[in-house]
């Protein structure tokens, strides 16, 4: 069956209170020492509450719900991450890049252009609810899949 999204690199954010007797930590965002009462820890680095921001919309990630997403050295909130990277990938049928925003079909770990999602032997398109099969990373309709199984059975007998 068609599956939803593939897993994304979600990173947890911790809020820590600064111990008065420890040396102030440097902020990975602005490189200044953190002298506030609270600091954020994410990606093994320390941040001012104001400095851990989404690179796209500038929202403060410590407030949005204690997770961030990262890709290509960008730190992003969930919404922007999914908008930019959520559906991008290479089409498993034609191996061309699928631009973000474009609708895709997903099957297991593969993504496909809508136009490419068809039986790769007879080109039959699938509708929602239709059965399809994945064999050696090829999409097959039920007829071709079962035919393939029969041929394999035949080959096995001949040997
Ligand atoms: Zn800072
Ligand atoms: Zn954002
Ligand atoms: Zn394609
Ligand atoms: Zn077919």
From TrEMBL:
<dbReference type="InterPro" id="IPR001781">
    <property type="entry name" value="Znf_LIM"/>
</dbReference>
<dbReference type="InterPro" id="IPR050945">
    <property type="entry name" value="LMO_RBTN_TF"/>
</dbReference>
<keyword id="KW-0479">Metal-binding</keyword>
<dbReference type="GO" id="GO:0140297">
    <property type="term" value="F:DNA-binding transcription factor binding"/>
</dbReference>
<dbReference type="GO" id="GO:0046872">
    <property type="term" value="F:metal ion binding"/>
</dbReference>
<protein>
    <recommendedName>
        <fullName>LIM domain only protein 3</fullName>
    </recommendedName>
</protein>
<dbReference type="GO" id="GO:0005634">
    <property type="term" value="C:nucleus"/>
</dbReference>
<dbReference type="Pfam" id="PF00412">
    <property type="entry name" value="LIM"/>
</dbReference>
<keyword id="KW-0440">LIM domain</keyword>
<dbReference type="GO" id="GO:0003713">
    <property type="term" value="F:transcription coactivator activity"/>
</dbReference>
<feature type="domain" description="LIM zinc-binding">
    <location>
        <begin position="89"/>
        <end position="151"/>
    </location>
</feature>
<dbReference type="GO" id="GO:0045944">
    <property type="term" value="P:positive regulation of transcription by RNA polymerase II"/>
</dbReference>
<keyword id="KW-0862">Zinc</keyword>
<feature type="domain" description="LIM zinc-binding">
    <location>
        <begin position="25"/>
        <end position="87"/>
    </location>
</feature>
<keyword id="KW-0677">Repeat</keyword>
